[in-house]
Design a protein that fits this description.
The protein is an all-alpha fold and 188 residues long. The chain is built from six helices and no strands. The chain is 78% helix and 0% strand.
Length: 188
């Protein structure tokens, strides 16, 4: 075998190794982004599971706010049935808006705001919103890495051959937060 033949085989071997490594990295990033989406889904389901208890607690104090309860119930149902990342994001944004209205209604009822059940549910909702934000950030980071590898040369060639497609980012509105009131006394 000639020197040129050996060099050709080394270059070909190096190219094959690079392709295999790139392909495996794409597979790993795709799996991590799917796992990250699963984490988001778990937290979104957790939030929708809190909604009926929150509605029932507020209903006990503000039964005449029927329109708000129905809006939250519709938004919860839409969030549970949403398909795809964009559809889920739109449904979650609607649920966030309706929960904000529900929390605003609750702010009008001092007895409700003092209720231990309501406070516990509101705290659980806030904790869940924080988990959603963390899971969303992790998912979007994984998607960004995957999409960059899919679009950058020379890994885009391997991605095209492996039928890898860019994923959508999960963008939702800021989560609902309970109204915080800070009193400093009266100013003179």
């Amino acid at each position: 075998m000639t020197f040129g033949g050996v060099v050709f085989l080394l270059v070909l071997g190096g190219l094959i190794v690079a392709i295999v490594l790139t392909y495996n990295k794409l597979i790993g990033l795709r799996q991590r982004s799917e796992e990250a989406w699963s984490d988001i889904d778990v937290q979104l389901k957790r939030r929708t599971d809190l909604v009926p208890n929150l509605i029932e607690t507020v209903k006990g104090y503000a039964a005449h706010e029927r329109e708000v309860f129905e809006e939250v119930a519709r938004a919860r149902s839409a969030a549970q049935q949403a398909q795809g990342i964009q559809g889920q994001a739109q449904a979650e944004n609607e649920l966030t808006r309706s929960l904000s209205r529900l929390i605003a209604v609750a702010e009008s009822y001092p007895d409700l705001k003092a209720s231990q059940n309501f406070l516990a549910l509101q705290e659980e909702l806030t904790a869940t919103e924080s988990r959603i934000a963390y899971a969303r950030q992790f998912y979007n980071d994984e998607v960004q890495q995957l999409n960059t590898l899919i679009q950058a040369f020379p890994s885009n060639v391997v991605a095209r051959l492996g039928s890898f497609r860019p994923r959508e980012f999960f963008e939702i509105d800021e989560p609902v937060r309970g109204h915080v009131t800070v009193g400093f006394g009266q100013q003179q």
